[in-house]
Write a structure and sequence with these properties.
Elements (H helix, E strand, L loop, with lengths): L2 E5 L4 H12 L3 E6 L2 H15 L3 E5 L5 H12 L7 E4 L15 H28 L2 E6 L9 H20 L5 E6 L3 E2 L3 H4 L12 E2 L1 H13 L4 E2 L3 H12 L2 H15 L1
Parallel strand pairs: 1-2, 1-4, 2-3, 4-5, 5-6, 6-9, 7-8
The chain binds NADP nicotinamide-adenine-dinucleotide phosphate.
């Protein structure tokens, strides 16, 4: 039986990964800050799928707590076969706000922790000659919507670099780049989503099913749904100044 470690496995896309992998008979290690929610989802999945679920309470903005999770990934006696670097959140702060702590917090969770956990999992999986790392990025990584786009652009490019480093080792690496997904993300970040048309909303379970299929096929970048595949293809072919202008409009509509 394989084991998957999922950061942010208590809500939204992370919880959808937890349900999908549990349904396939995988054991889980779930990481998040809220201990009550962790034990709630662990109990539910254990009862429903007769799997083993470990929970680890950790704030991934705190370096020492990330080290604790990295150590779990490198423990040879209890190997982790799949890492889902998923925990994250939206950023409302502007790039010219004098208080840059919201951006620094986001960088700690969505860049530093992703890097540290990817290194630990990549190192351990390479030794075993098998494993899968999925980093949850975003279609925002292809546009220029403030600090969040910059962070997710790092995640996508980092994933491509990691995939190159692990090429031929038996370890698969995928960046999941979803569009708008109905989760707690927007409410938590107080992002105004009224202007987002229904057509652009994706379902978390569907996003995860598509991603797991792409990861198994060895795709390095997974963009779920035909709609978003088409939008990103258009984006990649437009002059970049047009992408910037569209991003500018979208950013001001969200505040
Ligand atoms: N929803 C979208 O439209 C969308 C689109 C593209 C990409 N994404 C990406 O998808 C990922 C998951 O987002 P989601 O939409 O599923 O959001 P969500 O429903 O708000 O879930 C976020 C999860 O991350 C955990 N988390 C947040 N901060 C953490 C921290 N400092 N340490 C540990 N865990 C933390 C949360 O648990 P605790 O609060 O208990 O810690 C929760 O389990 C993020 O990386 C996000 O950027 C989302």
């Amino acid at each position: 039986m394989a084991t998957a470690l999922i950061t942010g496995g208590t809500s939204g896309i992370g919880a959808a990964f937890a349900r999908a992998l549990a349904a396939r008979g995988n054991d889980l290690v779930l990481v998040a800050r809220n201990a009550d929610r962790l034990s709630e989802i662990a109990t539910e999945l254990k009862e429903q799928y007769a799997i083993n679920v470990e929970t680890m309470v950790a704030d991934l903005a705190v370096r020492d707590e990330v080290i604790g999770i990295a150590e779990r990934l490198t423990t040879a006696e209890r190997p982790v076969d799949m890492l889902i670097n998923n925990a994250g959140f939206g950023i409302r702060a502007k790039l010219i706000d004098l208080d840059t702590t919201p951006h620094e917090h986001a960088i700690d969770v969505m860049i530093r922790a992703v890097l540290m956990l990817g290194a630990a999992a990549g190192w351990a999986m390479r030794q075993r000659g098998s494993g899968t790392i999925i980093n949850v990025s975003s279609t925002a990584s292809f546009v220029t919507m403030g600090g969040y786009s910059a962070i997710k652009a790092w995640v996508t490019t980092y994933t491509e670099g990691l995939a190159n480093e692990l090429h031929g080792t038996g370890v698969k690496v995928t960046a999941l780049c979803p569009g708008w997904v109905r989760t707690e993300f927007h409410e938590r970040a107080k992002i105004n989503v009224r202007s987002i048309p229904d057509l652009l909303w994706l379902d978390a379970d569907r996003v995860v099913a598509d991603c797991l299929e792409d990861a198994a096929a060895g795709k390095v970048v997974s963009i779920p749904s035909k709609r978003y595949k088409a939008l990103i293809t258009i984006c990649e072919h437009l002059p970049h100044r047009v992408v910037r202008a569209v991003s500018r409009r979208m950013t001001s509509a969200r505040h």
